[in-house]
């Protein structure tokens, strides 16, 4: 974690927390997938969440964030192009994960193997992305630009198991960081946060312990 995180820009803080949520979620699916006691429905929700959320996150970077950074700092474009190529390779692993038939015989082993590939790809990708992205966010993305992007991302995020992101953020973020993130949420979502958190906590407990 950045030692000066409490003084960091909202763009850097929110991106760091999103990445930590992705690390946690991909590792959780690897751990939970081979255990027979973990409910089928909880595995399916986490799998679907990862596929949808990671694709949406990378699309937002490739289509909106990278062009803004490159416009302000053209020298960053080769590194950003490399990150986009990594997104394409990760999407192959996500497609494999998405295509696992969770009703088929032996699906747990297939799910586990696909989850390992996604976890390893995500963790490796983030070790390459963060040293490029965090300085660029601090230096080249204004608070207004980031607020606009945050609202756009929230408005366009597909609803697949979205409660899990709230639960994961609860685990990786400090209270002040959560308040900053939730400030950009639509009022109807804010009103439902207690119920969303309860649902997320139940799913995360089932994934870790095999039941409520």
From TrEMBL:
Residues 22-137 form the Hemerythrin-like domain. Gene3D superfamilies: nmb1532 protein domain like. Pfam families: Hemerythrin. This is Hemerythrin domain-containing protein.
């Amino acid at each position: 974690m950045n030692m000066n995180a409490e003084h960091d820009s909202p763009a850097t803080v929110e991106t760091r927390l999103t990445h930590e949520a992705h690390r946690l979620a991909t590792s959780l699916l690897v751990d939970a997938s081979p255990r027979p006691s973990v409910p089928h429905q909880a595995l399916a929700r986490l799998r679907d969440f990862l596929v949808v959320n990671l694709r949406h996150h990378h699309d937002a970077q490739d289509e909106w964030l990278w062009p803004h950074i490159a416009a302000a700092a053209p020298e960053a474009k080769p590194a950003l192009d490399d990150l986009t190529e990594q997104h394409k390779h990760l999407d192959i692993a996500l497609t494999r994960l998405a295509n696992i038939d969770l009703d088929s015989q032996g699906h747990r082993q297939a799910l586990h193997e696909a989850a390992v590939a996604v976890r390893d790809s995500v963790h490796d990708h983030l070790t390459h992305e963060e040293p490029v992205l965090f300085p660029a966010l601090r230096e080249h993305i204004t608070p207004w630009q980031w607020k606009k992007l945050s609202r756009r991302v929230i408005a366009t995020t597909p609803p697949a198991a979205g409660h899990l992101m709230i639960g994961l953020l609860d685990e990786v973020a400090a209270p002040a960081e959560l308040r900053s993130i939730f400030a950009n949420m639509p009022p109807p979502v804010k009103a439902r946060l207690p119920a969303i958190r309860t649902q997320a906590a139940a799913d995360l407990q089932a994934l870790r312990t095999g039941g409520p």
